[in-house]
Each structure stands twice: as structure tokens, then as C-alpha cells.
Design a protein that fits this description.
By secondary structure, this protein is of the alpha+beta class. The protein has helices at residues 16-20, 88-102, 124-167, 175-178, 183-190, 194-197, 212-222, 224-238; strands spanning 2-5, 32-35, 63-68, 71-74, 81-84, 111-116. The strands form 3 sheets. Strands 1-2 form a two-stranded antiparallel ribbon. A two-stranded parallel sheet has the order 3-6. A two-stranded antiparallel ribbon has the order 4-5.
């Protein structure tokens, strides 16, 4: 901001008299120029906005362990195969294959361990493992056999009687038991001596089925109280 205008200088003797003298006039002098400059500086922090899109899952590091079996050659104890470990070159080759398969990254801190161990047990340990495997096999087989036996007895003593009860099926009697038997067969079953049966004749009468009237008469004579109760119930129902 700049500006200019007439300037005035004070003249005379300093003091009260100079201020009271009205005749004394201020004499104009050279114009006076004034200027003013304002500047505003705002200091702001710089800001950088970045957007990074990452997948939902992220692998921080990998830890992989691989066990490799060795080779087996004949010539062991009691004709068993002898275990031969892998060489260092083979193990390094397998290690590189594993690293390539899992995507090994050293900067991420991944670790890959490859060890050579026998998969087949050796010596007495192998025999013990085989024996335990056989025992487990026979135990599983015996368990299934026990299930089959239990199912058979359940059907024989539970399911079959229930089926007969609801269907009214009865076991057919043998033909020999249905036919009338002779005196000699009865004597043979009873074990009677032959001397007691000599000269004795018995008549075998054919069994005739009873009529409904005969059955009612037999029931009334055997259980008169129940017969009277049935008659009372029958009369009450007709009334």
C-alpha cells in the first residue's frame, strides 16, 4: 500500500509563545510519500494420499518340513532289507524342488527343512509293529462277527416272534406227529416190557371233534360262574 500528499514542518521557537501566536503560519514543504506493504505466508504440511488394494488373505511367511525315505537294499539281518540314507547331493536337490513347489521367498522369512528318515521300521521294532497290525485286524474282524451273531439272535428271539404274533402264523407241525400212533409205538415210547403187552388188545378210537353245543355244555359244567356272568352281560346288551 503506497500513498503521497503535502507535508508540513513545524517552525518557530519551541514553547508556549509559538503555540499562542496565531499569525504564525506553517509553511508547506515538499510533499511527503508514505508506503506500507503487507504479506501473508501460510505454512501447510504436505499430504500424499495413496490407495493400496491387497487381497483378502496374505501370507506372512512359510514354514515347510518334508520327510524323505531312503533306499533299501538286500543284505540286512535275517534276510531283511538294509536301509541306505540319501546322499547330500540328493537331499539338496530335493530341497530345491520343495522350495520351488511352495514358492520360497527368503526376504519374507520362509523356512524349508528336508530330512531323511526311514519309513519302514527296522529290526525288532518292525516285527512288533507287524504283530500289532495283525492284532488290530483280527480285533476288527471279531467285532464284526460279534455284530452278526447278535443280529441273528435278535432276529431269532425278538423279531421273529413279533412277526408271528401280528400275522398269526404258527409253526407247522410235523406230519408224523399229526398222524395217529399205534399201540406198539406208544409202548415203545413208554418203555413197557414186551411180556406185559402180550395178549392185550386195545382199541384205538378215532377222535371226533366236538360240536358247538358240546363245547358250550363243557364250558358251563367246568366254569358255571363265568357262564352265568356271560349270560347276564348278554341279556343286559339285548335290553
Amino acid at each position: 500500500e503506497e500513498g503521497s500528499g503535502p507535508g508540513f514542518w513545524a517552525i518557530g521557537v519551541p514553547g508556549v509563545q509559538s503555540n499562542l501566536n496565531a499569525s504564525a503560519q506553517d509553511q508547506p514543504t515538499e510533499p511527503v510519500t508514505s508506503s506500507r506493504q503487507e504479506e501473508t505466508i501460510n505454512y501447510e504440511l504436505s499430504k500424499v494420499v495413496s490407495r493400496v488394494v491387497v487381497p483378502s488373505g496374505e501370507i506372512k511367511h512359510l514354514s515347510v518340513a518334508v520327510l524323505i525315505d531312503g533306499s533299501y537294499q538286500p543284505g540286512g539281518k535275517d534276510g531283511a532289507r538294509k536301509y541306505v540314507p540319501r546322499s547330500a547331493e540328493e537331499m539338496e536337490k530335493y530341497r530345491e524342488i520343495v522350495k520351488s513347489a511352495v514358492g520360497y521367498n527368503a526376504q519374507r522369512g520362509d523356512r524349508v527343512e528336508v530330512a531323511n528318515v526311514p519309513f519302514e521300521p527296522q529290526g525288532d521294532l518292525g516285527e512288533l509293529v507287524a504283530k500289532e497290525a495283525r492284532w488290530a485286524f483280527w480285533m476288527s474282524v471279531s467285532r464284526y462277527i460279534a455284530y452278526i451273531i447278535l443280529a441273528f439272535f435278535f432276529f431269532l428271539f425278538v423279531v421273529r416272534p413279533l412277526i408271528r404274533r401280528f400275522t398269526g402264523e404258527q409253526e407247522p407241525l410235523e406230519l408224523e406227529t399229526q398222524l395217529p400212533r399205534t399201540v406198539s409205538e406208544l409202548e415203545a415210547d413208554l418203555g413197557a416190557p414186551d411180556m406185559l403187552t402180550e395178549g392185550i388188545e386195545e382199541e384205538v378210537t378215532e377222535h371226533k371233534p366236538q360240536t358247538p353245543r358240546e363245547r358250550v355244555a363243557e364250558f358251563v359244567s367246568a366254569e358255571p360262574e363265568r357262564a352265568a356272568e356271560l349270560v347276564r352281560l348278554w341279556l343286559k346288551g339285548r335290553a
